[in-house]
Amino acid sequence: MTLKQHLSLTTPLALLALPFLEDPLCALFFWIGGVLIDIDHSIEYVWEKRKFPVSLAAIESFFYNLELKKLYCVFHSYELLVALLAINFFFVQSSYGYSLILGCLLHLITDSLTNQVHWKSYFFFYRLKHAFALGKMLKKELR
Length: 143
Ligand SMILES: [Zn+2]
Fold this sequence. Notes:
Elements: H1 3-17, H2 25-35, H3 39-49, H4 56-64, H5 78-92, H6 95-114, H7 124-129, H8 134-137
Helix pairs in contact: 1-2, 2-6, 5-6
This protein binds zinc ion.
């Protein structure tokens, strides 16, 4: 999903949740998790292209036109969510942490359903096993 699509999905969900939340900041953390994990696309673009500043259009073209050879996207990893969940559960126990994780989970699920890469590509160790090669991440019909 594009950043605009994540904004269009996550923003109304965060606003709808507001009246049901004890702390309105939970909606903000949910929104941050649902939208801002795409920041890893910017990092990867700058790393690969050695260009800065960057435009959103250039980043989206780079990813959606499959101009990259390696797909790292470290924040797009279910393993990271499990680690965050464990840290939050055992050490922090913050409703902000759970809200952030829930937003990230929504982001990963919607990306998994809509993007050109196979759903397994959202596991860091799957990407690592395939040396982050984009060709191994694409859905079969795109290979
Ligand atoms: Zn994403």
